[in-house]
Amino acid sequence: MWHGYAAFLRMYYREMACDIQIAAQAAGAALVVPPYEVCEHTVRQFEGRAEGDLHDNAALELAWTTMLRLPDRIAPDYRD
């Protein structure tokens, strides 16, 4: 059931990361590359080897519910 949500959330987070990187580069500042340990932790999250990852149904449900708050707030009739 959560596979579609996981796919959406992965694409959403990747797009957000790209938007942030492009904005940072456009500002002309040097990019700060995270330490190796941080990158490895992120990989474990996306591969399902860390608590709170995108394979954890409770984490997915929380993320999805959180993302639904915006359309609920600005266009509550979308569910109709």
Question: Are there runs of 5+ residues with pLDDT below 50, and where?
Answer: none
Q: What's the total count of β strands?
A: 0
Helical content (DSSP H or I, runs of 4+): 55-70%
Element-by-element helix/strand order: HHH
**Distance N terminus to C terminus?**
21 Å
Biggest beta sheet summary: none
What is the number of helices?
A: 3
- Shape category: flat
Overall residue-averaged pLDDT value: 80
Strand content: under 5%
**Structural class designation:** mainly alpha
- Computed CA radius of gyration, to the nearest angstrom: 16 Å
Commentary on this structure:
With 80 residues, this protein is an all-alpha fold. Helices cover 68% and strands 0% of the residues. It contains three helices and no strands. It has helices at residues 3-26, 36-47, 57-74. The longest helix is centred in the N-terminal third of the chain and has 24 residues, at 3-26. It is flat and about 45 Å long. The relative contact order is 0.12.
Topology:
Blueprint: H1 3-26, H2 36-47, H3 57-74
What key phrases describe this protein's structure?
80 residues; mainly alpha
Compact summary:
With 80 residues, the chain is mostly helical.
